[in-house]
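Let's study today's protein:

:::
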Amino acid sequence: MAESRTILIAGAGIGGLSAAKALADKGFRVVLYEQAERLTEAGAGIQLSPNATRALMALGVAERLAPHVVVPDAVSIRQGASGREIARIPLGTDIAFRYGTPYWTAHRADLQAALLDAVTAHPDIVLKTGMRVDDFAIHAHGATVQLRQGVHGSQERGIVFVAADGLWSPARTRLMQDGPPRYRGRKAWRALLDADHVRDEFREPVIRLWFGKNAHLVHYPVSAGRKINVVAIVDDSAPGDDWSAPGRRDDILKRFSARHWITAARDLINDADTWQTWSLYDRRARRHWGHGAMTLLGDAAHPSLPFMAQGAAMAIEDALTLAQCLSAHGVEPVEALRLYEGLRRRRTARIQRASRMTGRVYHLSGPLAHLRDAVLARMGGEKLRERYDWLYDWRRV
């Protein structure tokens, strides 16, 4: 296909793969660059709410992923100290009926594999691994990227350059010069357990969310129920030397002491031999994510904290919106990019704000924690779910 229809994308994560598929489906030729030699995904789970599953259906990858997911029946919100259920939010068939698409939990590697299969099967997508985008230039007829593969350099041109290169995006730094992401005073400890190694009730198709002192715990089954994803979030004033690093089980157990957490929750943490920690960062929302024939997508544009479980969903929504805008305004790609940014800015900024607020609510202590629990219990699961109508009922596809 001619250069006039070529789009260049940096980063083959969930956002980059989704963008490549969405754009190729609209008739563009896509070249996707990934600096890693081979695509691997952290051993972590992911929640795919109805807006995410609707977007995956539009991408044509939901059927590939479906055999590997779990359809949770509910979110069970519990007190960490007593184990008492505060509220239960119905999911399962109820949420699928309300929004028209299901709520899934999955392993991130299974989602990435489904997207990668779709990308590699598409004749108009070229995936180049082991290739880093060192620099880019914007000009009157599009963009040029400077590439590095080992000791060899090269360049390619396209009508648009999309940086989907994550939280620490070099392209964003080069474009905006707005400094590094902001550490938000919390760390996520993640582990993956064999389902047959945990209590029977923890194998149920339920997302369990536990509130405790300066911490919360989330766990749910993934990989068609064969694995249990466990995430422990703790307050931590120091981000550490690395964004992600191995963690010691004894260290996380100290943060979930027997004084403040029931045995069942502590046993789940104790069952995990291998932990990986992530320091949690985000950025302030920006009015624009690009300039000329260049734009950002996913975490490179609007990284958020994980407390709304929307990071992957926002990247996939970005991808579909970008493809729609470029398809509708293909003769004016720069105008199409600004339209895409305008359509996505308000929604993604709201997610960023809501994620910060949700994290604060989860980690309340003392009388405020008791008030939170009383309010949640009084509202009940149906009312709590209705508060997410604005999020889950996204239908721009």
